[in-house]
Amino acid sequence: MTVRVFVVDDHELFRSGVRSELHDDLEIVGDAGDVAAAVEGIRATTPDVVLLDVHMPNGGGRAVIDAVRAERPEARFLALSVSDAAEDVIGVIRAGARGYVTKSISAEELNAAVRRIHDGDAVFSPRLAGFVLDTFAAEIAQPADPELDLLTAREREVLRYIARGYAYKEVAHELGISVKTVESHVSAVLRKLQLSSRYELTRWASDRRLV
Amino acid sequence: MGAMATARMESERTDEGAPRARLQRSRRNRMLGGVAGGIGDHLGVDSVTVRLAFVVLSLAAGFGLVVYLLVWVLAPLEAASDPVQPPRQLPRPRARTVLGAVLVVVGVIVLLWTFGFWFGAGLAWPAVLAAIGFAVLWARDSDERRVRWDLASFGTPLEAVLSGRVSLPRILMGGVLILGGMAILLAATTSFEAATSVVVAIIVTVGGLLLLAGPWMWNMARELMDERSSRIRSEERAEMAAHLHDSVLQTLALIQRAKEQREMATLARTQERELRAWLYGRAPSVRGSRLRDAIDAMAGRIERRHQVRVETVVVGDVELDEHVRALVSACTEATLNAAKHSGTLEVSVYLEVEADAITAFVRDQGHGFDLDEVPVDRRGIVESIVARMERHGGSAEVHSTPKAGTEITLRLPRARA
Fold first, then answer.
1. CA of B227, closest CA in chain A: separation in Å?
2. pLDDT tens-place values along chain B, 417 residues long
3. Which of A125, A128, A164 to probe the B interface (max B CBs under 10 A)?
4. CA geometry: angle at A139 spanning A138 and A140, to 5°?
5. Fewer Cβ atoms within 10 A, N terminus or C terminus of chain B?
6. Which fold has domain B259-413?
7. Do the chains contact at A130 and B314, CB–CB below 8 Å?
8. A113, A168: one domain
């Protein structure tokens, strides 16, 4: 089945680069260079996956997610950025993006990431995994909701492998579990990142200059 | 730097095109401090009228003089004007002119004295002393830092004091003179009641002035601060421009000349790393004193020399000490080893700082090797990593699978705090 992709980035060069890199099973249904055009385009074209630049004039990726999430809950977002600043990453993930990769990602990896996002899984780059580990490393005396505020030992293990540069398949092999299980662990971590009551995550992370 | 700041302020001013100039002492139209010229510009009145008004007001119990001095002290000096358009410069008062003016003033005083409009030596001498003290205190070298003491180039006295440009001896001397004047004044007044009434009068006057001019003085002070912060902003801008010029522009030029794609990618990656470190505020002075920075620096060096990509992820951070440095060195050796021999273009480095230990993983997905069959030279490197870690109470493990890659795990226990 063809995945319908919408590209949002204020750099024309990057948009055309992505266009030439995506495989045939991924169809680009539209692109946009600013928040307003993106919101309009996503409404009109009903894409499956939106590739979303974190940094744009007038609001950036978060503004796009906030604007269309309610009426297009089936659209999934993969955030792309050059910066890797902790507050950007956490901000866009908490807004609802299902993954985060840097723009230096290879064409192969980008294709795989779009597929994975489309299948409802989360995409963690090594850097994002490291960031999440760092965020959840801080001891909190009384977690308001242990289900959300703490990582399980298995989740931690999976994230560590990802941070070490292992692909999901390799993680599965190392831990003797299925790729599906790895994916569900990562999705669980994503959910915690989005819903955890650690509201100060962003500030905390940026104070410590986690990048 | 100063020139740049000034230029920017100038352009802002012309951009605004404000019909009414902000109150500042004029540089072009000045006899003493440029006060009358400034007020004239501000109100849109000929400065001669303003000067006359000052003279008349000064006769009214010296009120004009006080206002003049206040403006002088508080109003900033106008920014240096555009060099393209030579300013309308009033001729500097020459020695002869000054002498003439002094004689006229003395003549007027003598005249007033003769007619009985004189307040007596008891007030005159303290006033003279205080005035000299004031001059010593506030006069400073010209803005162009000419050594010559130049009446026409008084700066903003408040600014001078704020920036510490008025030297301590001067402050002391001026202070002593002014206090001395006041002491003589008090000593000359015969009775205690008179002294009290003088003090009361001073308090009333100062209070009145504060009520009258307080808000305006406050605004002045604020504008002074604004000016300073805009100067700081433009300095930061210039620093950024300089940095981008030295780094990003140079790299872009190099990339255009690069012949191979791999070389291009290396240049771009190196620049990215540098820019990232700079953007996220790692000052060069602290760089290298913490684990994260040391690992980053190591990755940057290896990327440059061996044209591979070194992806580093560091969780947690610690100050470098002897043991952590050993870990960084072992990490460097492992990464270098992977960059040189693994045959892959990407090395992953992951470090995690935990309460009881620091763990490092260096991984490549290159052709790997069978540990028992490695050539001697490569084995030496592995052994040296292991030995280094063990000397510092740590350990190192090597996992390698032919055709799948190698991962070196380093572990350094931490002393409990």
1. 29
2. 444 444 444 444 443 444 456 677 777 777 777 788 888 887 777 888 888 888 777 765 566 777 777 777 777 777 655 444 444 445 555 677 777 877 887 787 777 777 766 555 566 666 777 777 776 666 544 443 433 343 333 445 555 555 555 566 777 777 777 777 777 776 666 566 666 776 777 777 778 777 777 777 788 888 888 888 888 888 888 888 887 887 888 888 888 888 888 888 888 888 888 887 777 765 554 555 788 888 988 998 898 888 888 989 998 888 888 899 999 999 999 999 899 888 888 899 999 998 889 999 999 988 887 776 666 666 677 778 888 899 999 999 988 888 888 999 999 998 754
3. A164
4. 115
5. C
6. Heat Shock Protein 90 (3.30.565)
7. yes
8. no
Q: What is the ipTM of this complex?
A: 0.79
8 Å CB contact of B317 and A208? yes
What's the token pair of residue B36?
A: 């009358």
State which amino acid sits at residue B144. Answer: E
Instruction: Report the distance separating Cα A61 and Cα A77, nearest Å.
Output: 9
Q: Which of A171, A196, A176, A210 is nearest to A85 (CA)?
A: A210
Q: Say how far apart CA A122 and CA A60 lie, in whole Å.
A: 21
Same domain as A95, residue A35:
yes
A-B interface: how many C-beta pairs under 8 angstroms?
A: 50
- CB contacts of A160 in chain B (<8 Å) are 350, 352
- CA distance readout (Å), A154 to A121, A167, A168, A204, B184: 17, 16, 14, 24, 87
Amino acid identity, position B245: H
| Subunit contact B314:A85, Cβ cutoff 8 A | no
Residue among A126, A137, A208 minimizing CB distance to B313 = A126
Structural domain for A133, as ranges: 125-211
Residue of A nearest to B354 (CA): A137
Contacts of B316 in chain A (CB under 8 A): 134, 137
